[in-house]
Write a structure and sequence with these properties.
mainly alpha; 2 domains; 0% strand
């Protein structure tokens, strides 16, 4: 402002910025402005008090940076998926799990499918399938969930882990022979994790939150576990409760733990 006459707006902006204006330009202005002279009295006490009560103007550069970031975030194929309604996104997750189930029954069905009780088989499959649909709907609600969504998502993760455990207790009812077959829990654990990796990737593509909370990631891992139990139910001929708990139910625990551990470095970095 040196060399230029000050006006009342310049004086007020100085106070809002936390400065007391000084200089010959100010003296020239005060000679004709009694209002600003009043603001400057007593070392600018009145002007500083009024200026402190006014919110500073936002930095347009920072605002533009936020806008650019949001525009970049909401462009590309993923933005189109994230913009879909919650029900559509949940149907995509459930349909992907259904497609994997059909391919499993077609390519690698359980060897005892012809003798295993169809009532028990399809009852367990239906319970797991309904859980996938309900879990996907609740999980993908995202930011539209209530304020206590973290608590609700933790409750959801417990439910999604409990349903496969319940199925492991029902499965032995389908066949006495399958109930005594131990099999390899480690194989089913690895197979289940590999089969459901595309579903975890699909969840990431559909998740609207850039940084979903740990509670949401735990639920996402548990939901992948439910899908894995559905696929392993169609593939594995063992109905031994110990095998099912260690090799089938544990998939949800493994995915939930893995996603939670992936979240930890980001939290530490912040």
């Amino acid at each position: 402002m040196k060399g230029e006459a000050l006006d009342c707006a310049d004086v007020r902006r100085s106070f809002v910025a936390g400065r007391v204006p000084v200089g010959p330009e100010l003296e020239a202005h005060l000679a004709t402005c009694p209002e600003c002279r009043e603001l400057l009295e007593d070392d600018g006490r009145l002007g500083r008090g009024l200026g402190g009560a006014v919110l500073p103007e936002p930095d347009p550069g920072g605002l533009f940076a936020l806008v650019d970031r949001d525009i970049a975030r909401d462009s590309g194929p993923r933005s189109k998926l994230r913009a879909l309604p919650t029900r559509v996104r949940a149907v995509l997750v459930a349909s992907a799990a259904g497609a994997l189930l059909v391919s499993q029954l077609w390519l690698r069905p359980r060897p005892d499918l012809g003798v295993y009780s169809p009532v028990v088989f399809w009852s367990a499959a239906l319970l797991l399938a309904v859980t996938i649909v309900v879990g996907a709907l609740r999980l993908l609600r995202g930011p539209t969930a209530p304020l206590d969504s973290s608590r609700a998502e933790r409750s959801l993760s417990v439910l999604l882990l409990a349903v496969p455990a319940l199925v492991s207790l029902l499965a032995p009812l389908g066949s006495d022979e399958a109930a005594t077959r131990w099999g390899s829990p480690a194989y089913c654990l690895g197979y289940g994790v590999a089969l459901t990796a595309p579903l975890v990737l699909l969840y990431w593509l559909l998740e609207r939150r850039d940084a979903p909370p740990s509670s949401a990631l735990l639920s996402a891992g548990a939901l992948a576990g439910v899908a894995a139990n559905l696929l392993l139910h169609a593939h594995c001929a063992s109905a031994h409760p110990g095998h099912l708990l260690l090799g089938h139910v544990s998939v949800g625990v493994a995915w939930a733990t893995l996603l939670w551990l992936m979240k930890r470095p980001a939290q530490v970095a912040r």
